[in-house]
Structure formats: structure tokens, C-alpha cells
Amino acid sequence: MSGAMNNYVKFGLLIAVVLGTLAWLAVGGISETKTYYKTVAEIRQLGNQAAERRLRVGGDIAVNSIKRNGADVSFTLAQDSLRLQVVYNGIDPLPDTFRDGAQALADGKLGSDGVFHATKIQAKCASKYEAKPVMKGTAAPAVRAS
């Protein structure tokens, strides 16, 4: 009887360890996604600590700020009244959604000159989530089966 009981205790401990590990991974994953990218304000608060650290920063692409210079593309990320100059010189083509007013994430490093040097850009169009106006008379006419 005690041999069987011992097996149940070992099995119970194993289950507890597995569940504990899964819970630890889940909590760790959640806290990582919360700080997955920094805002322009957070980059400013980091000051010198942000320099030369690999970071991801997010914001809105300021209107009329996108400039192409050879292989480099420079633009400004805006958050409220704050601005961050970004220069992208990665090998991947910029996404189709990369345009004025879009939300963008830039991966790279903040240079000592205060310019964020990005090697990867992700963008999503802010208007994608707005309801599109429905225009009357745009529905396709029904096709009658003959």
C-alpha cells in the first residue's frame, strides 16, 4: 500500500512542477509583451541609458515627414507633442501600410545624436480600424439564373 501511495505522491509532485513551470512561463510571457515596445515618451525618459541598446519604439508617422535618401528612409515618429527622428536602412522593403498617419514600430538603436537608427519597420494603417462609410447603390446587381 505504501509503495502505491509513494507513486501517487511522486506523480502529484511532478504535476505540480509542470503546472508551476507553465504558470511561470505564462506570467513571464505576459510581462514581456507589456514592455514589447517603448513609446517616444519612454525613450526620452531613458535618456543616456537608451543609447546603443537594442530597442523597439512605437508611435504614429508624422504627416509629411517621410523622406527617401538612396537606400535610407527617414521619418518622424510622433506621440502627442513628442517627436523622434528615425532613419531606416534595413534590407527588408517597407510595408505597404507605411505612410503618413500610420502606426509604426521601429526596431533598432538610439544613436548618441538622438536619432533612432532602425533596421526593421512594421506599420499598420490607423484607418484600417475605422468603420468604412457605406455608399448607396454600390452593391453588385443580382445575377438571374436562366
CATH superfamily of the largest domain: Nucleic acid-binding proteins
Count of individual helical segments: 2
Strand order of the largest sheet: 2-4-5-7-6
Largest sheet: 5 strands, mixed, barrel
Indicate the CATH architecture of the largest domain.
Beta Barrel
The separation of the N and C termini measures 80 Å
Describe the structure.
With 146 residues, the protein is an alpha+beta fold. It folds into two domains: 1-36; 37-127, OB fold (Dihydrolipoamide Acetyltransferase, E2P). It has two helices and seven strands. The protein has helices at 2-34, 40-46; strands spanning 38-39, 54-61, 67-69, 72-79, 82-88, 103-110, 116-124. The chain has a five-stranded mixed β-barrel with strand order 2-4-5-7-6. A hairpin with a 2-residue loop joins strand 3 and strand 4 (72-79). The chain is elongated, with a radius of gyration of 25 Å. Residues 31-35 and 128-140 have low confidence and may be disordered.
